[in-house]
Amino acid sequence: MRKANCIFCKIATGEIPSRTLYEDDDFKVILDLEPATKGHALILPKSHADNLYELPDEIAEKVLKLAKQMAINMTEKLGADGFNLVQNNGTVAGQTVHHFHMHLIPRYADDGQDINWEKSQPSSEDLDAVKEQIVG
Ligand code: AMP
Ligand code: ZN
Known about the structure:
The chain is α+β, with helices and mostly antiparallel strands. The protein contains three helices and five strands, in the order αβββαββα. The longest helix is centred in the middle third of the chain and has 22 residues. The N and C termini lie far apart (36 Å). Bound molecules: adenosine monophosphate (AMP) and zinc ion (ZN).
């Protein structure tokens, strides 16, 4: 399924060109145009889903397997020292293109990137309350 005016749908069909690293019936893997590091790539499902919440289970099942294969291959080919998988859902979470995608970010000892967050120190009670909110 395609969504009108979705840039990643247009990339998936080839209407907008991309540097494609891998393609099969379900996915296209492309180089990010504004990479965090050398080799930063994106896994795009060919069928439109806005985000993880909408992603069909059969695509969700396949996406981590593909991410693993790409990470192994790219780490070897690029001589990376590590790898981040990043997947943003919703504007507040940093999603700017609302077509599900997974970032494949090779990491290098000297890449100068910091893909991290500020840690907090909740009380034990606060952690218990969060757990109850989720599973209770
Ligand atoms: P996110 O912030 O998780 O939605 O990530 C969107 C990513 O898409 C960003 O890293 C952009 O650099 C990348 N991007 C946007 N347009 C293109 C494009 N035409 N080709 C390749 N990457 C793109
Ligand atoms: Zn789309």
